[in-house]
């Protein structure tokens, strides 16, 4: 199964339109146009067909996580409180 097949199946299963996929990719600062995106969903024998690389699929999956779950909460930068000074 190719990356194009995985991308197509996710698109159908999640009922995503091209503009939604573009927005999902923008969540991870990956820019792509609708025409570039449509090349991934064409048949392999079509002259404008393009293979979906690992980077594009990875960015789509990372953006999809943000789209479905929301952004990852920011980690607290303060150090943990030590219990050295507490008496028992």
Automatic annotation (TrEMBL):
Source organism, top-level taxon: Bacteria
Lineage per the UniProt record: Bacteria, Pseudomonadati, Bacteroidota, Flavobacteriia, Flavobacteriales
UniProt protein name: Uncharacterized protein
Pfam family membership, one: DUF1456
